[in-house]
Write a structure and sequence with these properties.
153 residues, mainly alpha, 7 helices
Length: 153
């Protein structure tokens, strides 16, 4: 098993930044999500911490966020509630003021487990059907999210 994990980890490291792109509307959304006194949004990933940070650096969003958390930063992983609670506590935030913008069923489940909304964004690999009823709203483009996403039942 250790050999399989090492092979997977090594391969992931090689391809990590392949086809990684910043979706249209991300920069606008990050700007619109800034809170009072210029507070920045936070990122957390199901990727390992090093991979999550490399992706954010590669995309140029690291200066726009207060934190990037990955799975090896804690004993927990997405969608475990403990992972989200750890991130919120580390950032001095709470679930009442949080929204998760994500592109996978893991993101919807993560937000659901922590009792806050998820704005589920469709991508080339996801459709609204992938998200189920756990998402509070679904948006096809992030540029719509900042101005008010379409609410889903």
């Amino acid at each position: 098993m250790k050999k399989a994990v090492k092979l997977h980890t090594d391969y992931t490291e090689q391809i990590l930044l392949e086809d990684v792109v910043l979706l249209p509307g991300v920069l606008e959304l990050l700007g619109d999500l800034r809170g009072p006194r210029g507070r920045k949004p936070r990122f957390f990933y199901k990727q390992a911490h090093v991979g999550a940070r490399r992706i954010c650096e590669h995309l140029g969003v690291t200066p726009l966020v207060n934190g990037v958390f990955g799975t090896l930063d804690t004993p927990w992983v997405k969608p475990q509630r403990e992972f989200t609670e750890y991130v919120l506590a580390a950032l001095g935030a709470d679930a009442a003021s949080a929204v998760l913008v994500g592109d996978s069923p893991f993101d919807v489940q993560t937000a659901h487990n922590a009792s806050f909304p998820c704005w589920a964004v469709t991508t080339a690999r996801t459709t609204p059907k992938n998200f189920g009823r756990g998402s509070r709203c679904r948006v096809r483009r992030l540029s719509r999210a900042a101005g008010g996403a379409q609410r889903a039942g």
